[in-house]
Amino acid sequence: MTHDWERIAASEAFFGVLTADKYRAKELTPERIAEFYATGDADIGWVIDTFKRVFGAAPSGTIALDIGCGVGRLARAMRAHATRVVGYDVSDSMLALAKQHAGEGVDYVKALPDGPFGWINSFVVLQHIESREGLALLKRALAGLAPGGFASIQVTAWRTAHQLPTGLQKLKRAAHFTLARAGIRPAEALIQMHDYALTDVIRAFVEAGIEEQHLVHTDHGGHHGAWVFGRKPVVGS
């Protein structure tokens, strides 16, 4: 997977994060890049409002982790609600762009840190990771959530008929993965989409000590899923 994101970052990093044509490399201007990062402010603002509405509190003055930070769109926005933000991603090129455009107040790393964290966030990320690998990553991250800490994790779970892969797409995808496993660089970088069983995600939350969750439906062009919000109980509460 890493090699695909390296190639995407080299050619279409911003489009790889938000798949709107206005964020393609040929369309990017300083104003368009500023607009791109402003969408992160809006998304994180909604996350904070949801925490307050559901749990009566929200992250503040804590250490936060953004999983799959890409070019830092959300990590940058999380700074307003944390004393320190850590952005984790597997792509060196994505991390370099994040440091260039959204580096102030954020530590960008390629190895998943252990924590503890007061807030763990991930949005439109796990869908690009095979579900077994993604669940393992999620469990490792949630193990680092501190008592009283917040989690906001989004996953995809199903897709409408027009998003189901055709026979040709299945063949192209199979060939892509076969070449990659053989160490041969496929001709075209592939943005993968994977669905998760929500029962597995909820179980990961529960096993991390987050027994109360709040789900909000997401729909990105026929790829359906959910934001899963939770808060780990404070010790002794």
Question: Care to describe what's here?
Answer:
The protein has 237 residues and is an alpha/beta fold. The protein has one domain: Rossmann fold, CATH 3.40.50.150. The protein is built from seven helices and seven strands, in the order H-H-E-H-E-H-E-E-H-E-H-H-E-E. The protein has a seven-stranded mixed sheet. Strand 4, helix 5 (131-142) and strand 5 form a beta-alpha-beta unit. It is globular. The model has no long low-confidence stretch (mean pLDDT 86).
Q: How many beta-strand elements?
A: 7
| SSE string | HHEHEHEEHEHHEE
Shape: globular
Low-confidence parts lasting 5 or more residues at pLDDT below 50?
none
Number of helices: 7
First-residue to last-residue Cα separation: 41 Å
Question: Quaternary state, please?
Answer: single chain
The helix fraction, in percent, is 40-55%
Mean pLDDT, to the nearest integer, reads 86
Cα-atom Rg, whole angstroms? Answer: 18 Å
CATH topology: Rossmann fold
Strand order of the largest sheet: 3-2-1-4-5-7-6
> CATH class, anyone?
Alpha Beta
In total, the number of domains comes to: 1
In short:
The protein has 237 residues and is of the alpha/beta class. The chain has helices at residues 2-17, 30-55, 73-78, 92-102, 131-142, 167-181, 198-207; strands at 62-67, 82-88, 106-109, 117-122, 145-159, 213-220, 223-231.
SSE layout:
Elements: H1 2-17, H2 30-55, E1 62-67, H3 73-78, E2 82-88, H4 92-102, E3 106-109, E4 117-122, H5 131-142, E5 145-159, H6 167-181, H7 198-207, E6 213-220, E7 223-231
Helix pairs in contact: 1-4, 5-7
